[in-house]
Amino acid sequence: MTNPDVESLASMLRALGDPTRLAIFEFLLERCCAAMPDSPAASASEVCCAVTGIEKITPTVSHHIKELRSAGLVLVTRAGRRRQVSVNSEAVDRLADYFHRAAEIAPRCCTPSRSNTPN
Fold it and tell me: Going from the N-terminus, what domains does the chain have, and what CATH number goes with each?
């Protein structure tokens, strides 16, 4: 993995390390993945309502959406005066590839062998 790839992945993982941002990302994954053309994006106020129960966008949720966007995890587009938010499917693919690779490697290198375990 190149240094820019490591930085990009670290940025995504940092963004998802916040419980509110993770909840927003989960909501968007279930609601509207950008890879599915028939799946509509959610408005910023819909995201806010789903995560906080408040129907109007709050500065806090707006900040979290900005952080997710900066990390490349979500796409934000304008539809008139409304902001539409959707998951960046390329980012999901990168995360999936990383964890899939880690899951393949871990059993070989991270599990103690029987000969190395104390008796």
Answer: 3-110 (1.10.10.10)
